[in-house]
């Protein structure tokens, strides 16, 4: 029998942090199997009283990577004491953040997994509002580029940030004159062999983990709030299962953002430590803003598969749901010649892509388990393309226009660019975004 089989609970035997090196180690126990994650922040510039408590939250967030190995029937928070106000975040992290994992592995009990706290910490008795330069997370795609440009142009002097950046992310950050901070996250090296031996695998709320790494890094260097680039459609689920919404992007959505902000306030005493600048915008709105910035055309990528490709010029696989959606979202605003230059291929000329586009349009199945926009956004993009000589006669656009029962009306098109979806962006930062001008003009 394998070491992880028939384990009754995930336990938290303890963690360490070396303030001289900035290296944190988080230990997790599945029965007799103890696994250790390492996060190397680099030497801190300042000591902050809230840091230890942010590392508590990171300890819990990163545990989802280790829980999924065995998917035991309980999580016992024995080695970490959280303020009671952080518990709703923990429960959501597991019940909703592991929703896709539960769905794909048919583990119904994970949706109601018992989270047992052995003890509670007192709420933080201080209040810290980060006020230095913002720490802007960069993923290499159009979204974080819009955030970078908005913050730079507003004179907010962002520090660019990434966890385990590859050459693609570094090339995007290199276009900007802003300083960069990187953190290395290393999973226990035995994870691969456990997966190969038959342990469970699947999607976890990785954005929650990276967000807390960013908050900790911000505290270590006296920086301001962590600014993410998650859009409104990230909150929309892919499907319903057993009466529960299953959302591939849960940890990028507004409910997750609100839960984490409340946990940071209750347990670590940090207010407005973390928000998504683009939360009020649709994917199409963001795509239209990105089209204003040509300096990133040679480096931008929003393709997750590209991060696994070996060629230095491989930025788009051209065949995944995200490539299809990003091509669709950008096409109405970039013009054909520019978009083909960005992608290196004309996705709309390839009829083998039609089944994937049918999914994006809601004609078949459910929205793909990927970071793609809402069905309504895809339909609005299609309507815009049918009105443009550059695109309306391409094989994919013609085929979809013939199959979609009805295209969105003018009011639905306008709604996609209002930019007023629910968000928690502070006014100063919202003004920086608004200063980029209208999404559908060159202003």
UniProtKB/TrEMBL annotation:
Q: Which reaction does it catalyse?
A: UDP-N-acetyl-alpha-D-muramoyl-L-alanyl-L-glutamate + ATP + H2O = UDP-N-acetyl-alpha-D-muramoyl-L-alanyl-D-glutamate + AMP + diphosphate + H(+)
Record's Pfam families?
MurL_epimerase_C, MurL_N
Q: What are the protein's UniProt keywords?
A: Cell cycle, Cell division, Cell shape, Cell wall biogenesis/degradation, Isomerase, Peptidoglycan synthesis
Q: In which pathway does it act?
A: Cell wall biogenesis; peptidoglycan biosynthesis
InterPro entries membership: MurL (IPR043689), MurL_C (IPR058741), MurL_N (IPR058740)
The source's superkingdom equals: Bacteria
Describe the location of the MurL C-terminal domain by residue ranges.
Answer: 299-411
Q: What is its EC number?
A: 5.1.1.23
Q: Which residues form the MurL N-terminal domain?
A: 2-277
User: Is Calcium there in the keyword field?
Assistant: no
Which HAMAP family does the record cross-reference, listed alphabetically? Answer: MurL
The family note in this entry says:
Belongs to the MurL family.
The role this protein plays is:
Cell wall formation. Catalyzes epimerization of the terminal L-glutamate in UDP-N-acetyl-alpha-D-muramoyl-L-alanyl-L-glutamate.
Q: What is this protein called?
A: UDP-N-acetyl-alpha-D-muramoyl-L-alanyl-L-glutamate epimerase
**Species whose genome carries this gene:** Dactylosporangium salmoneum
């Amino acid at each position: 029998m394998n070491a992880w089989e028939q384990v009754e609970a995930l336990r938290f035997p303890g963690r360490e942090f070396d303030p001289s090196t900035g290296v944190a180690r988080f230990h997790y126990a599945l029965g007799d199997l103890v696994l250790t994650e390492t996060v190397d922040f680099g030497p801190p510039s300042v000591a902050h009283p809230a840091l230890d408590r942010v590392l508590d939250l990171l300890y819990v967030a990163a545990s989802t990577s280790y829980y999924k190995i065995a998917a035991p029937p309980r999580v016992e928070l024995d080695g970490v004491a959280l303020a009671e106000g952080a518990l709703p975040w923990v429960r959501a992290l597991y019940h909703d953040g592991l929703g896709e994992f539960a769905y794909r592995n048919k583990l119904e009990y994970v949706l109601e997994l018992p989270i047992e706290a052995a003890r509670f910490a007192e709420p933080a008795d201080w209040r810290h509002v980060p006020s230095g330069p913002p720490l802007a997370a960069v993923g290499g795609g159009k979204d974080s580029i819009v955030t970078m440009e908005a913050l730079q142009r507003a004179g907010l002097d962002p520090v660019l940030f990434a966890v385990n950046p590859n050459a693609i992310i570094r090339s995007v950050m290199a276009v900007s004159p802003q300083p960069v901070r990187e953190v290395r996250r290393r999973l226990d090296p035995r994870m691969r062999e456990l997966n190969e031996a038959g342990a469970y695998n699947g999607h976890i709320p990785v954005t929650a983990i990276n967000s807390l790494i960013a908050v900790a890094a911000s505290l270590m260097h006296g920086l301001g709030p962590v600014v993410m680039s998650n859009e409104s459609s990230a909150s929309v689920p892919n499907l319903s299962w057993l009466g529960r919404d299953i959302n591939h992007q849960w940890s990028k959505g507004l409910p997750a953002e609100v839960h984490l902000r409340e946990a940071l306030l209750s347990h670590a005493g940090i207010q407005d430590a973390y928000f998504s600048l683009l939360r009020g915008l649709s994917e199409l709105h963001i795509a239209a803003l990105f089209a204003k910035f040509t300096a990133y055309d040679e480096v931008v990528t929003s393709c997750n598969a590209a991060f696994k490709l070996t060629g230095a010029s491989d930025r788009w696989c051209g065949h995944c749901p995200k490539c299809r959606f990003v091509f669709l979202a950008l096409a109405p605003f970039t013009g054909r010649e520019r978009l083909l230059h960005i992608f290196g291929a004309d996705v709309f000329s390839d009829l083998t892509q039609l089944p994937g586009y049918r999914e994006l349009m809601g004609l078949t199945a459910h929205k793909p388990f990927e970071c793609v926009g809402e069905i309504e956004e895809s339909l609005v993009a299609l309507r815009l393309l049918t009105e443009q000589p550059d695109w309306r006669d391409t094989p994919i656009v013609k085929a979809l226009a013939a199959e979609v029962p009805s295209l969105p009306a003018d009011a639905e098109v306008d709604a996609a660019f209002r930019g007023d979806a629910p968000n928690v962006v502070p006014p100063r930062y919202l003004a920086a975004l608004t200063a980029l001008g209208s999404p559908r003009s060159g202003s």
